[in-house]
Amino acid sequence: MRCPFTERPTRRRLRSRSRSRSRPYPPGQAQNEAVPATATPTQQYTRTGSKLRKTNRLKLTSGDMPQKDLFSGKPANQDTYPYPLHFGKRKALCIGVNYYGQRRELRGCVNDARNVRKFLINHQGFEHEDIVLLTEDSDHPRSRPTRANILSGMRWLVHDAKPYDSFFFHFSGHGGQVEDTDGDEIDGYDDVILPVDYKSAGYIRDDVMHSMMVKPLPPGCRFTALYDCCHSASALDLPYVYSSRGRLKSIQVSKHYIPYKSTPADVISWSACKSGQTSMDIWHNGVASGAMSYAFVTSLQTNPHQTYQELLYSIRTICSEKYNQKAQLSSSHRINPKLRFVI
Predict the structure, then answer these.
(1) How far from chain centre, in Å, is Cα 212?
(2) Which residues pair with 253 in a beta bridge?
(3) Are 293 and 96 in contact (CB under 8 A)?
(4) Which residue has the higher pLDDT, 313 or 69?
(5) Mean pLDDT (the chain, rounded)
(6) If residue 270 lies in a helix (H) or strand (E), which one and from where to where?
(7) Using 50, 70 and 90 to split pLDDT, how confident is the model at 328?
(8) Cα–Cα distance measured from residue 330 to residue 270, given in angstroms and rounded to the nearest whole number
(9) How far is CA 48 from CA 55, 59, 247, 290, in A?
(10) What are the backbone angles phi and psi of residue 17, rounded to the nearest 5°?
(11) Cα separation of 330 and 226, whole Å?
(12) Where in the sequence numbering do the catalytic residues fall?
């Protein structure tokens, strides 16, 4: 299990606290300012028997794609964001932390980082020199997954990002949850990842990862994140969450933060589980690995030409054979899940 701690209380207590908490507004927006039109929910209709029932729930009613954007009210079939073309530079950051000698030591995370790097080189056209690998078994101090090195790697990854560039971020290790301090989380808790030195240096919040790796990206740039850790559904703070049926399932940031957390860059996050779930280590042919990392690589090696919807379904199928964790797909803007997924 990849979650050494969490500050999340019981579900009943969480609900009562989330109703009463005051919600700060995102940077640059005062409380008395009008919320942008893109953050105003539109009423949806669901069919109950032969009658139509009006509801404000953030879910779709029918079809493979939403008839209208949930907040702008514009038709969803408008090509707001072009299909990504990537012939610029490719860079990747792969991180594996086993926490040797610490409580709740893991076994497969270092293997995950090496396997994902090998997959990117052999199957996705990445060059060896364009991938930074941070693993706990490294003898070089700059190659260990400390908090300082991970933050430095994040800055290196998106430095001088330009349209048509492609970036890949992978983290395999412990994840957790702490109380949200800025009001952007619907459930009241930030997802965090734990460096090898988290006991002395601290964890890394989803807000930090979003501001460092998502906000600097220009339109037309591609960024793919793969999180293999517990409580990772909103680890990159992307607003739009999709189901394996190809539908927009929910919005996972608070209403006032949707414009701030959205971006015209093409940012996709694949997470091992829901924010309230745990992620597991597995053994395959006598080698330890994370269930999510193994499923992601195995699925794309078996069938490289998959849509978002097909890949999400495939990953969930592989993980569900032995474990009760549900992989999540989220994005920085609306996507068509029936398009082919590319890195």
Answers:
(1) 14
(2) 185
(3) no
(4) 313
(5) 80
(6) strand 266-271
(7) very high
(8) 7
(9) 12, 15, 20, 42
(10) -75, -40
(11) 11
(12) 174, 230
